[in-house]
């Protein structure tokens, strides 16, 4: 009887260890939950929070009067009733526009308030001259109880990532790349990044191994089809950026 009890204890311990080591990639909502509600709106961000995203990704531009506005495209035509470049507008002018006829273009502060520390906010520095004002906004929120750990900064504009690192030595940085992911390792180390965010179709076992050996995490974008998500899980990436968080 004593032996059976000991065996049961060992089995339970092994089971607990297996569960503890269970692989669960981070669920990263792309521009909020854009598969459900229009991208980069407060409503889409709130939906991503409701869907229990670990991380929520957005895009920022610095506009004419210095405010950081959340929008993906450099031009307004695709989603709004405005025309031309977003950077040529003021915050007040942009607030008069409609996004898909019902939403508004939010400020970075509105998005941070909507998340309310219920998920990590991945701020992609989409436009030029976004790093310094973004760093200032983050510092302002740190005075309200937020921490650097509540944010991650990413960009295809690697010069902006260098500026961000000069402004904040502790915040997590992820290097976005659309080409061979392993080629970003050297720069990632230069800016003390924690991750590389590659286009999901560029990943394979070889470059995944190289990135992991370089002690960097991998958060590929933007996988939406179940077969693609499953393939990324087979590669054991650390998180998956998707329009449909419920599929992760």
From TrEMBL:
Residues 1-20 form the signal peptide. One of its GO terms (biological process) is lipid metabolic process. The keyword Signal applies. Residues 25-248 form the GP-PDE domain. GO terms for molecular function: phosphoric diester hydrolase activity. Keywords: Signal. The keyword Signal applies. Pfam families: GDPD. InterPro entries: GP_PDE_dom, PLC-like_Pdiesterase_TIM-brl. This is Glycerophosphodiester phosphodiesterase. It comes from Myroides marinus.
């Amino acid at each position: 009887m004593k032996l059976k009890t000991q065996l049961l204890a060992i089995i339970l311990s092994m089971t607990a260890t297996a569960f503890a080591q269970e692989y669960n990639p981070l669920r990263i909502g792309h521009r909020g939950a854009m598969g459900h509600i229009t991208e980069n709106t407060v409503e889409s961000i709130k939906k991503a929070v409701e869907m229990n995203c670990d991380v929520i990704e957005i895009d920022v531009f610095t506009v004419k009067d210095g405010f950081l506005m959340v929008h993906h495209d450099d031009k307004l035509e695709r989603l709004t009733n405005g025309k031309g470049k977003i950077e040529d507008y003021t915050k007040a002018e942009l607030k008069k526009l409609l996004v898909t006829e019902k939403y508004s273009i939010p400020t970075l502060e509105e998005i941070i308030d909507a998340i309310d520390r219920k998920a990590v906010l991945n701020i992609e520095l989409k436009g030029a001259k976004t790093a310094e004002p973004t760093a200032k906004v983050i510092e302002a929120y740190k005075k309200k109880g937020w921490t650097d750990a509540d944010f991650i900064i990413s960009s295809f504009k690697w010069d902006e990532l260098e500026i961000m690192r000069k402004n904040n030595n502790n915040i997590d940085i992820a290097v976005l790349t659309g080409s061979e992911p392993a080629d970003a390792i050297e720069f990632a180390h230069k800016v003390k990044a924690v991750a590389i965010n590659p286009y999901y179709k560029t990943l394979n076992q070889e470059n995944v191994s190289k990135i992991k050996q370089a002690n960097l995490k991998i958060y590929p974008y933007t996988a939406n089809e179940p077969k693609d998500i499953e393939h990324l899980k087979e590669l054991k990436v650390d998180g998956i950026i998707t329009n449909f968080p419920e599929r992760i």
